[in-house]
Amino acid sequence: METPERVLRRLEFKVVRRLDGFFFGDYTGVFYGPSLDLAEVREYQPGDEIRRIDWNVTARMSRLFVRQYREERELTAWLVVDTSPSMGVGTRRQLKRELAAEFAGVAAYIVTRHGDKIGLVTFPGRGLVPPRTGKLHALRVIHRLLGEASAPEGSGATDLAEALRHAGRMCRRRALVFVVSDFLSSDRWEQPLLELARRHDVVAVWIQDPVERDLPDVGGLHFRDPETGAQAWVDTSDARVRTAYRDLVAKQEAGLAETFRRAGVDVLRLATHEAMLEPLLRFIAHRKRRRRWSSPGH
Fold first, then answer.
1. pLDDT tens digits for the chain (298 residues)?
2. Cα–Cα dist 218/209, whole Å
């Protein structure tokens, strides 16, 4: 297994250096979005942004009030990382949990290099690395995730709803929250996501493996659910089976995308058969465009 130091050097060379010229000059705006603390509520004045109207106060006072913000001096990010058994799948370059650890390493390095803090919560075991800054802390985050990624099996079924609620309890002020998961969770986690996204800038880092989207034509296969242990035999040579599977996956993915849209959550999709850099560049370009068009005057 690679040491955290070697992982960080590799990610710095292959990913971080390529990102430097792309967005670090605008780091807080692109990576964090609006990093603001509520200072007060005041009466609406012509020219105020409509999206800052406080409808609760407006309803009580029968006239328009808006939220007045102040910029936060200290920014904090949290990594909420899925280490459940389903993240142990990987049919190409790496396992899903290894890819999750690499993304977390990139995020930790970027955040701490700019003097901000990053913390880590893993689930379902609720491992915790409290938020701090500095390169040594980024190495601590990577070390924790590499240890969990090298385990032969995860510890317990995915409990995404509780992980999101736990993250909400840990974030005492507005923060950037990366939820890194394959989102293959049977619990009802949509409402906890909505509640978390109301108070924080949430990014869903959706980790996938190609075989989960399209069954290969390789004849009869035995499949085992890594979390429940349930097993099934599937004839992948049957075109009807492969088509039905693709349709089911497409329906599930559409449902996930709609959940993220309703919550106002940006999505970064990473796959085990692809390098991380290009999806990251596309994601950052999307954040830049959204920030530009949501700024005053647009």
1. 678 888 888 888 888 877 766 654 455 555 655 445 556 677 887 767 777 788 888 888 888 988 766 555 567 899 999 998 889 888 878 999 999 999 999 999 888 887 889 999 999 877 899 999 998 999 999 999 888 766 655 456 678 999 999 999 988 788 899 999 999 887 789 999 999 998 888 999 999 998 888 888 788 877 777 767 778 888 888 889 889 989 999 999 999 999 999 999 999 999 999 999 899 888 888 877 766 554 444 4
2. 17
Instruction: Label the pairing between strands 266-271 and 201-208.
Output: parallel
Global confidence as pTM = 0.81
**29, 32, 95, 116, 176 from 172: Cα distances, Å:** 21, 16, 33, 15, 12
Tally of helices (H runs) and strands (E runs) in the chain: 10, 10
Tokens, residue 16:
């971080």
Decide if 123 contacts 158 (C-beta within 8 A): yes
Q: 52 — phi, psi (to 5°)?
A: -95, 5
CATH topology of domain 4-32+76-294: Rossmann fold (3.40.50)
Give me the residue spans of the domains in the chain.
4-32+76-294, 36-71
B/e letters for 163-189, b = 16+ CB within 10 Å, e = fewer, are bbbbbbebbeebbbbbbbbbbbbeeeb
What is the C-alpha to C-alpha distance for residues 86 and 290, in angstroms, rounded to an integer?
33
Quick one: which of 14, 116, 178 has its CA closest to 6?
A: 14
Distances in whole angstroms, Cα of residue 223 to Cα of each of 33, 149, 181, 244: 41, 22, 21, 16
